[in-house]
Design brief:
Elements lengths: L7 H9 L16 H9 L3 H12 L6 H13 L3 H15 L2 E8 L11 E2 L7 E3 L12 E7 L4 E2 L4 E8 L13 E5 L4 E11 L9
Length: about 200
Amino acid sequence: MNTGERHPDVLGLLRAASLLAPDSAATGNDLTPDDIWDDLVHDRWETVLSLLEECAGSPDLPAAIWEGLAGAAEQSWLPRSAAWCHWRAAEARNRSVRAELRLRPAGEARRRTPLAGQGVLRPMWDIGNRAPDGAPAWNIAGLWVEGLPFLAPGGRAVVRLVPLAPAQWAHVAPGARILMHEDASVGGEAVVLEVRAPAGRAPRR
């Protein structure tokens, strides 16, 4: 990709979402294409998101905008950025959860290698639901680790979860303690920090 050129799809989508001021119209506090382009071409989309949220009051972009950004990233050969945008589209369509997760050390759980942080893993979670016989009914949610490509056993990080069946997570609220499973053993413990409804609805903090 030529880093001297702007990807028109990206900038057009961000302007359509009312997140960018044109260079010619920007004031000292506005976010302009020049402010974010260096991060975009160097595949630092999470940094860009933080800038956009600071300047636009934590916007909840609709899934269509995120899918458009994902397509632009794919055309620009930015696979990690594309994965991040697809992830955010899934968050916009479904209930999503942010939590602080601590993995069990290698000797206390099944996992002995680092956990991939970019939305690949879909572990099971004990969020308090029960089967008809009273046994725990675990629920699946995809996992993205904020700011880290991997999370090693025994490590701690803030993670983002997208439930496979959002209605089953309706009771989960900030402060709740939930357990991660990759098998019958507990692989990690998490404390819920925030629950976000689909884009356009108010989050629970």
